[in-house]
């Protein structure tokens, strides 16, 4: 016998049996072989290919109180998960204090106090807000990784950039989150991170690059700097810059391996030189170890442009 078609909203990701009941789907249909039981009361179509929020939707459909938090919330927001935790795919589900503790397979349960505005609906799931997600991670992450997460949430680029970007929250939002939860675990790390978070950083490696330079006593590079041509149009958008010394720092990630990207990088380097700037290209290997090579490369570039420890 042909199986009944599922309502469209149940085919794009995980769903709870509670939701399918509301949609009029029989329990017999939810037990069919084209659905996988990923946890008690949660199904996902075999061929859905769901990821991110869609794959986790069923966990917040279970009741009216469950919220994705911690690393799961960070993944929903699309933030940078530290390499050491990238293989941890357990699902962090929280309920407000006073409700039952979330207990199920592959779920890390939390009972938390949420203040107004700290839980939102995003991409079809209930999730902690960007600022609250960042604060919850303060007890799990080392300082540089917490700064990278903060940089991600506050990152913004103006209309002069090829891809303008709006921040998910502001540094002030992060500061308010810290002030609202005195006594919470991780506050010492969160307060230290607040002093290092900057607007305009596109990736965790770029954050780690900036922190390595500052830790080594080099000037802090400027983010969101735009180089304009003689016609007043933007021509370069370095990942970080030293305008006083006309130095552009470019972090080359994995996407820089293809031939087309290689040619774009060459054109960018030529444009940089044409406008009297020096480009310093940084790769993953330059950020590794206790004494990352990025410090040597950037210090050499600064010295070649007249920088001294006392300034210009």
Name its key features:
single chain, 312 residues, alpha+beta, 3-stranded antiparallel beta sheet, 11 helices, elongated
Structure explained in plain terms:
This protein is of the alpha+beta class and 312 residues long. The chain is 34% helix and 16% strand. The mean pLDDT is 92. The strands form 5 sheets. The protein has a 3-stranded antiparallel β-sheet with strand order 1-3-2. The protein has helices at 17-22, 27-30, 52-61, 70-77, 130-137, 143-154, 171-180, 187-194, 204-215, 259-274, 293-304, and strands at residues 15-16, 35-39, 42-45, 67-68, 91-96, 107-112, 119-122, 125-128, 227-228, 234-236, 240-242, 247-251, 278-282. It starts with 14 loop residues before the first strand and ends in an 8-residue tail after the last helix.
Q: Beta fraction of the residues? A: 15-25%
Which structural class matches the secondary elements? Answer: alpha+beta
Poorly predicted segments:
none
**What distance lies between the first and last C-alpha atoms, to the nearest angstrom?**
80 Å
Tell me about the largest β-sheet: 3 strands, antiparallel
Please state the CA-atom Rg, rounded to the nearest Å.
23 Å
How many extended strands?
A: 13
Give the helices and strands as they follow along the chain: EHHEEHEHEEEEHHHHHEEEEHEH
The residue fraction in helices comes out at: 25-40%
Kindly state the mean pLDDT as a whole number? 92
Biggest sheet: strands side by side, in what order?
A: 1-3-2
